[in-house]
Sequence to fold (348 residues):
Amino acid sequence: MNVDPFSLPLSGPLVTARETISQRSGFVVRYDHRGETGVGEATPLPGWTESLDDCQRGLDDATTVAADGGHTDVLLSLDAASVPAARHGFATALLDADAKADSVPLYQWFDSDRHCNRVPVNATVGDGPPDETAAAVERAVAAGYDCCKLKVGKRTVDEDIERVRTVRERVDEDVTVRADANGAWSHEEAADAIDRLAPLDVSYVEQPLPADDLTGHAELRGNGVGIALDESLVGRRVDSVLDADAADVLILKPMVLGGPGNAHTLALRAREQGVEPVVTTTIDAVVARLAALHVAAAIPDVAACGLATGDRLAADLAPDPTTVTDGSMSVPQSAGLGIDPTEVETDA
Ligand SMILES: O=C(O)CCC(=O)c1ccccc1C(=O)O
Ligand SMILES: [Mg+2]
Fold:
């Protein structure tokens, strides 16, 4: 097992109600298994995952285990609740090697009966004034997107409603609009915002209330705008969220959930309970974006996912093999993730 650090600047910061993301640092993991070299990526986002230091410690410990143990020992040494990004890095490398050894694209390793060439995706638009927000949505629509997710909750509800209204005035009505408040609203603000977002045809709002407030989210459902939970899944069992009837949609971030396999399992569980899974990145480099794409590709009729985040990075670990056209992302059909480990370069 090999671990190499990297750090990549964003081309422009992503501003959310909760944080401003301007750079992504992490580790490329390589692991030899069944005659193949698999590649993975551990890109922690503190607050969502462990810190960079804790991720490094997790991977260092795992390297020691790998020196005289098998892959099962390594997986068991990486706890999804305490070091989810480190576990994601190793688990992805292992899955990439397994899928390569079986000569199938990773999504088919999850579901051998599936054929999936494209996954629908949303464009991700950060906080900004109404004009800037609408211009970003117009650019996305011109580039072929038919679903946009707007970050909200950084401004007053009045200002956010003005932003969404401006978007609605400027783009075709068949463009799907989603919002993501990243936990910023009080009960009163959330109820008011949802009342006013419903006539603007916003399909769902992600995390209107703080993560712990499952009851509050359950009460917000059924008012014309779907309720999606994201932060509520950080450090909490998905079963408890499903049991609380708190969501119409679950946002599944493989980097936060401890790997692509965990995310895939939880997506199927959500579906069984009538909750729609949506897979997203945490603004990752190309290896983790591909892993998330394969998770989404393994889910039949998946809703638009938050995977089109590659153009946020000013540099990347390797060329991105995917393209987005007409609102969907192409899925590599070569074996594994669809990336050649020798093309993955860190600056270390
Ligand atoms: O879902 C998307 O469109 C992209 C991913 C995204 O928004 C995100 C990226 C990093 C951290 C948090 C979030 C989020 O969904 O809240
Ligand atoms: Mg979110």
